[in-house]
Amino acid sequence: MEAHLSRFVDTYTKAIKESNAAIFAGAGLSIPAGYVNWKNLLRDIAAELNLDIDKENDLIAIAQYHYNEKGNNRHKLNQLLIEEFTQGTAVTTNHKILAALPIQTYWTTNYDKLIEIAIEEEGKTPDIKITQENLSINIPRRDAVVYKMHGDVSLPDQAIITKDDYEGYNEKRPLYTTALQGDLVAKTFLFVGFSFDDPNLEYILSRIRILLGQNQRDHYCFFKKISRKDFSIDEDFHYAEIKNQLKIKDLRRYSINALLINEYSDITDVLSAIQKKVLRSNVFISGAAKIYGTRTEREALSFVHKLSYSISSKGYKIVSGVGYGIGSAVINGATEYVFSTKYRHLDDALVLRPFPQVVTGTKSKDERNLEYRYEMMKHAGIALFIFGNKDDGKGGWKISNGMIEEFEVAVEQNVIPLPVGATGYASEELWNKVMASPSLYHYPNNPDLLDALKQIGDKSKTEDELIIQILKAIGILQNNF
Questions:
Q1: C-alpha–C-alpha distance, residues 262 and 142, integer Å
Q2: CB 64 within 8 A of CB 162
Q3: Nearest to 454 by CA among 434, 477, 475, 480
């Protein structure tokens, strides 16, 4: 990935973790799903007016001309929106990634429902704002707000499509303007599939620029580099290149930074990198122990405590199922760090999902625990495995099958397993598996990472040395996508 895109991944991940990130989606996000762009949407409308849509740049005017010619009747425009944006289509990979990210604010000029569908498919609750009246009513326990700035296909008669609609926007929908201005001031926006030809957004951006001057928050947008292969003659290529550069520089007036990409598929790579970096900030700790090998119980729990404290101190969030024999030490290590800081919240450092101890309901214990493991693993990008034994019911011990299952769930969910082989038992078995073929377990080809993995399987290492190597591995994985 190019350096400027890698820097953006870091910047936007930070904004997401601080709950300051927002998405603005344009038509370009939905086109790969099979929906039309504005030019194709209005192609038949233009033909009725004896106009060639490919020669027109002011597409809003085309819709207005048709409205005028029909005696101020927009029935056909409304029907067109219904026909084009109610046809069945599946959400794209980009929709899925954006919906999976812990982002609470989405703005869009699109009439389709793909964003909210993608959010619902992630098991989240979207609060959809289509009309001004929606802004004063909130859905309980919502996970994200979707502002449909230009309306929705379910209300085609209220969709923003003609010049009249645009010109009257700030009088008829002033609360949308106010809400978007507030978000643009307070949040870092990523514009996806947006052309910046929308007069409403331009007006709002200009107001913020005048009010804040040189103190505007930085925002970002994807821009495809102009390629010679897309043009038949050099003259057209050079003209497009000049215009693109001028547009990019003009957007800087609004503190919108262009993220230059070679192909539109690069957008998916960048979004995927953000998703991985966000998830790899969350470390699942899998462990169970009746016995601790050559360590005394006190020594083993001290190691787990220090490990948990150290992971928290680096800004990572711990996800734990409160494993038998080590769960309390995980909690104590994380909480000790949180309580030693002045401004840290416990929820920022620790997600606890203790397993139910009593079997109730229609599902078996194994079925319930497997579902539970999938749910826990959704919140992590890296999974640590320590120790891994349990009571065999006969006064002895056996390998923890629950840890083995968690390892399998992690691999299936593309969570990178990091078994601390030096702690023995199931962890040692899993460490041997990963060491034998790291690439099978989502490891990037990084010599320093593989060396750290090797070190955490060395039983001669002290607990401090092991923790150093574990943190080294986690840090490398944070920046390798």
A1: 37
A2: yes
A3: 434
Residue of 4, 75, 95, 150 marked active site: 150
The domain segmentation of the chain, as residue ranges, is 3-35+89-276, 280-478
Residue 261's nearest CA partner among 191, 200, 352 is: 191
CA-CA distance, 474 to 279, in Å (whole number)?
Answer: 12
Please, which residues have CB within 8 angstroms of residue 206's CB and are 6 or more apart in sequence? 254
Predicted confidence at residue 88, as pLDDT, reads: 66
Alpha-carbon distance 150 to 169, whole Å?
9
CATH class of 280-478: alpha beta
pLDDT over 90 (residue 474)? yes
Lookup result for tokens 């290149």: 241
The overall average pLDDT reported for the chain is 91
**From CA 479, how far away is CA 198, in angstroms rounded?**
36
Catalytic residue check, 305:
no
Residue 347 — left, alpha, or beta (φ > 0 → left; ψ -120 to 50 → alpha)?
Answer: alpha
3-35+89-276: CATH number: 3.40.50.1220
Intrachain domains 3-35+89-276 and 280-478 with the same fold = yes
pLDDT digits (tens, 9 = 90+) for 320-374: 988 899 999 999 999 999 999 876 678 888 988 887 777 788 888 888 888 889 9
Rounded Cα distance between 300 and 325, Å, is: 10
